[in-house]
């Protein structure tokens, strides 16, 4: 797939401006219009055109790149269908920001892998608020020649030690470490790495997370959701904590990039299509979700994005065609990041924002000078 960038929605007050800039105002063609917002570069646009042609409608399509922008899209009351991650889904259902719909008659919903359906029940107990769209895991992508040189090894360990260990971080900071801009995913990964359970999130664990972020900050060169797609293959960074689809794409397109799922286990994410509570086009929204979940369309979108389709049929077709290697949910242990109480998540977001700003606003010289500081969780 082409790793293009489309920044359709930006935070807060700039939402309407961004919409006009990217796709213009919704078309006034006299046909029904469905308003859809999705993650950046996360759909084959030809499938949208196919839906429009089949149903004689128009789709006004926008994109977002960060969790905050997803929430801005939902709160704008301008969209019928959005695509939240599995962690956010539970909070959206509890807050009444998405509406239930009939999933039982949808062909694609019946074709979802059983293990994913079971995991989804933890967030959507009724099974009537969401249809899985893509799934994946958090992994590590490395610019292998630089990492081998920095660590003095031939075989790079398939471990979170590459990102988080006190011994490795000072060495790898010299060639660049980046982490995905996702507070919940990084929270889950750090907690898991430190041996903390995720079945209950307490104030103490949030405070620990803040301490670990402070320890991590001197070694991280950037917190971002998409720049690594160009920076890592170009060798501007050497280690990136990334979403699986991006990692596999970079490894496929560059001989210098290796991607692995950490042997200790990793966070599972399931992105689903939902209908917002404010939608006045529920019937059309259901048709769109059903269309995108059918195996042939799901296959096209998975092939385009390099992410994993939840459709059993689509995944089998992709394997048969040689587009993807057989994927196993038991390859490494997986866990869903927890749903966190709103008050605690506010604290988490505050800590994450401080961390991101500290990292992204820091000068390169100060990062290099700080590389002698203790690592994550290590005392000075």
From TrEMBL:
Q: Which GO terms describe its molecular function?
A: polyamine binding
Residues of the signal peptide: 1-23
Segment Disordered: which positions?
A: 358-380
A Gene Ontology CC term for this entry? periplasmic space
Keywords, alphabetical: Periplasm, Signal, Transport
User: What single Pfam family name could you report for this chain, choosing any that match?
Assistant: SBP_bac_8
Where does the protein end up? Answer: Periplasm
A Gene Ontology biological process noted in the UniProt record is:
polyamine transport
Compositionally biased region (Polar residues)? 358-369
Instruction: Supply the name of the protein.
Output: Putrescine transport system substrate-binding protein
Q: Which organism is it from?
A: Pseudomonas saponiphila
